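User: tokens in, sequence out, please.
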């Protein structure tokens, strides 16, 4: 747990569901929703980077063991649990997972605490969750990092956005009537996050969606094969690296969107 040194352990309860939430920093609030298999050292480091850039980070523990290192067996085990969980609808192209209700409640509490707009980043299995959170007016900076739901098992699901038609209508209204913008990131050749998904986002949201698509060769050679996790496992945190530029864009996006109107 030394990996999470500097984070304050809190908890949040909504409708009888209680989860731990790791917090760090001060300033505008950003909810970091970790990827499969859990809050790995790389995810914790990302949360630390965001907090140290001037934000209040809230990182809920959604699954896995906080601080546990990434491994293939660990990833496969947590993915299997998510697939059978009632909280995650891994094949739903036009329906958000039920666990997003809990996350929306967390965002609302954080908004009430800070008095300002909230940002959120989802990763992999939770990537498109940031869209569901943006149904609420206080969520102003949704970031979709390699959004992987619904699983791309057929053409319709490859372009699926994991949100209902009514939810999509609300988001489109917010992008046209408010200053809501959406940021997405993926690697070329990533089978978990196919290009059709980003094409669907561009078609639905136009210039309100900013998509960053990185060449597979820019991923960390010590990371996933093929590269998948843009700002965590496959990040090369060095000046001039494409993944570092993507990370810097996430930070600047939060600063732009969460600044006072």
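Assistant: Sequence out:
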């Amino acid at each position: 747990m030394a990996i999470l040194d500097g984070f304050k352990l809190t908890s949040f309860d909504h409708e009888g569901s209680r989860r731990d939430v790791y917090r760090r920093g001060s300033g505008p609030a950003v909810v970091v929703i970790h990827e499969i298999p859990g809050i790995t050292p790389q995810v914790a480091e990302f949360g630390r980077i965001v907090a140290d850039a001037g934000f209040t980070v809230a990182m809920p523990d959604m699954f896995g063991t906080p601080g546990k290192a990434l491994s293939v067996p660990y990833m496969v085990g947590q993915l299997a649990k998510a697939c059978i969980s009632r909280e995650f609808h891994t094949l739903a192209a036009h329906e958000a997972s039920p666990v997003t209700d809990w996350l929306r409640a967390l965002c609302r509490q954080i908004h009430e605490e800070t008095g300002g707009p909230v940002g959120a980043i989802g990763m992999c299995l939770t990537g498109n969750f940031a869209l569901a959170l943006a149904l609420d007016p206080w969520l102003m900076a949704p970031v979709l990092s390699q959004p992987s739901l619904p699983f791309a098992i057929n053409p319709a699901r490859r372009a699926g956005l994991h949100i209902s038609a009514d939810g999509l209508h609300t988001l489109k209204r917010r992008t046209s009537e408010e200053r809501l913008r959406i940021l997405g990131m993926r690697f070329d050749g990533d089978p978990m996050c196919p290009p059709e998904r980003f094409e669907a986002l561009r078609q639905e949201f136009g210039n309100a969606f900013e998509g960053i698509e990185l060449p597979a060769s820019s991923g960390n050679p010590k990371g996933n094969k093929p590269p998948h996790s843009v700002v965590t496992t496959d990040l090369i945190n060095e000046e001039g690296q494409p993944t570092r530029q993507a990370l810097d864009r996430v930070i600047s996006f939060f600063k732009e969107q969460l600044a006072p109107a």
